[in-house]
C-alpha cells in the first residue's frame, strides 16, 4: 500500500556543517516524526560522494534510489555533498551531523565513507547506517549495512560488446582514480573483450588521477584529454569508469564519431552528453538506486539486517543498457556470457 508522500530537501553549507558537526556525538536517534495517523515518517540523511547529485553517473544513481523512497514511502530527507580532496574527518563530521540531527537511517555514498561510517555508527547504536560500495565489501556493527557490487561482471559484458563492435581491433579503458574499486571495472572489461574476441587489442588503461587526488571523478577536461590519447592510439570503442569526468570522455569520443561506453547510470539520454548520444554504444549499469531503496525499505519495514549485500549479475545488481538499440544485434551473445557467469562457468577477474 502506498503511504503519504512527504518531501523536504535541505541545502547544507560548509559553514553549517562545521558548526553543527561540532556538537556532541551519541545523541539518541529519532526514528521520525508522527505523520498524524500514528505512524512515524522516516527521516533519511544521505551524504553524497564527490560530484554529488547531478553528476549523471554514480551519485545520480544513488539519488534515484532516494527519489524512489520519497515517492513510494513516507520519508523526509536531507542531502549533503562531499568536497574534492577533503580529509576523512570531513566525511565523519558530515555523517555525525546527520545522525545528531536525528536522521535515521543515514547513508554514505562511496567507498571512502566506509571507515568513517563504521566509526560514527558505534556512537549512534539506534541509528541504521548504509555505506554504498563498502570498501573491500566489509563492514562491522550491529546497525551497519554495506552494499557492494560485482562491477567486474557488468564490465565483462560491456567489454565483450566493445570487442564485438570494434572495427579497428583496438579498444580503450579510462578510469577516474586509480583505486582498487575502479581497477575491478578495468579487469572485467579486458577479460570480457578477450573472451568475445581473443585477438582484440586493449590499449593500456588510462587513469585520470592518483589518490589522494580525486579530481578524476569530477573534472570532464581530464576525461577529454585522456580520450584524445586513446583515440590517437587507434581505439574506436572507449569505456569510462570516471563518474562526472567521464562526461568529457563521452563528448570527445562522440565528436570523433567513435563508440563510447557509459557507466553506473544509463547515460544515453542524459542532457550533458546529448550531442554525443548516438555514439553511446551501451552503459554498464550499477544499480546503486536499488541498493539505496532496498535499505530504506528494510528500515521502514523493520526487516533491517546488518552485514553486507552483494549486487551482481545473478540478482541484476549490475548489467548493461540497451537504450538506442546499438547492441541489439549482439544481445544474444552477451546474454549467453551472462548466463555462463551466473552459472559459474566463467569466473570474472577482479584485478587487471
TrEMBL record:
Its main location: membrane. Residues 1-23 form the signal peptide. The keyword DNA repair does not apply. It is a lipid-anchor. GO terms for cellular component: plasma membrane. It comes from the Bacteria. Keywords: Cell membrane, Lipoprotein, Membrane, Signal. Residues 48-345 form the ABC transporter substrate-binding protein PnrA-like domain. Pfam families: Bmp. It is found in: Cell membrane. Belongs to the BMP lipoprotein family. PANTHER family: ABC TRANSPORTER GUANOSINE-BINDING PROTEIN NUPN, TRANSCRIPTIONAL ACTIVATOR PROTEIN MED. This is BMP family ABC transporter substrate-binding protein.
Amino acid at each position: 500500500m502506498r503511504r503519504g508522500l512527504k518531501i523536504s530537501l535541505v541545502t547544507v553549507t560548509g559553514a553549517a556543517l562545521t558548526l553543527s558537526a561540532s556538537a556532541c556525538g551519541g545523541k539518541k536517534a529519532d526514528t521520525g516524526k508522527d505523520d498524524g495517523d500514528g505512524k512515524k515518517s522516516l527521516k533519511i540523511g544521505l551524504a553524497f560522494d564527490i560530484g554529488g547529485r547531478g553528476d549523471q553517473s554514480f551519485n545520480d544513481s544513488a539519488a534515484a534510489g532516494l527519489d524512489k523512497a520519497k515517492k513510494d514511502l513516507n520519508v523526509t530527507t536531507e542531502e549533503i555533498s562531499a568536497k574534492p580532496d577533503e580529509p576523512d574527518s570531513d566525511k565523519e563530521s558530515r555523517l555525525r551531523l546527520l545522525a545528531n540531527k536525528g536522521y535515521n537511517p543515514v547513508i554514505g555514498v562511496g567507498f571512502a565513507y566506509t571507515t568513517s561510517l563504521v566509526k560514527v555508527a558505534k556512537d549512534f547504536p539506534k541509528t541504521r547506517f548504509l555505506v554504498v560500495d563498502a570498501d573491500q565489501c566489509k563492514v562491522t556493527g550491529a546497525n551497519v549495512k554495506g552494499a557492494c557490487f560485482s562491477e567486474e561482471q557488468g564490465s565483462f559484458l560491456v567489454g565483450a560488446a566493445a570487442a564485438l563492435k570494434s572495427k579497428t581491433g583496438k579498444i580503450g579503458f579510462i578510469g577516474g582514480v586509480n583505486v582498487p574499486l575502479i581497477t575491478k571495472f578495468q579487469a572485467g572489461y579486458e577479460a570480457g573483450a578477450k573472451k568475445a574476441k581473443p585477438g582484440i587489442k586493449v590499449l593500456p588503461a588510462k587513469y585520470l588521477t592518483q589518490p589522494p587526488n580525486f579530481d578524476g571523478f569530477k573534472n570532464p577536461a581530464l576525461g577529454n584529454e585522456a580520450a584524445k590519447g586513446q583515440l590517437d592510439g587507434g581505439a574506436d570503442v572507449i569505456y569510462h569508469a570516471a563518474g562526472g569526468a567521464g562526461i568529457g570522455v563521452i563528448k570527445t569520443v562522440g565528436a570523433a564519431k567513435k563508440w563510447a561506453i557509459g557507466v553506473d547510470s544509463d547515460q544515453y539520454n542524459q542532457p550533458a552528453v546529448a550531442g554525443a548520444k548516438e555514439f553511446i554504444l551501451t552503459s554498464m549499469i550499477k544499480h546503486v538506486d536499488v541498493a539505496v531503496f532496498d535499505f530504506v525499505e528494510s528500515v521502514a519495514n523493520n526487516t533491517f539486517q546488518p552485514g553486507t549485500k552483494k549486487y551482481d549479475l545473478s540478482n541484476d545488481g549490475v548489467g548493461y543498457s540497451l537504450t538506442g538499440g546499438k547492441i541489439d544485434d549482439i544481445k544474444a551473445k552477451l546474454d549467453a556470457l551472462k548466463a555462463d557467469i551466473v552459472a559459474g562457468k566463467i569466473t570474472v577477474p577482479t584485478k587487471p
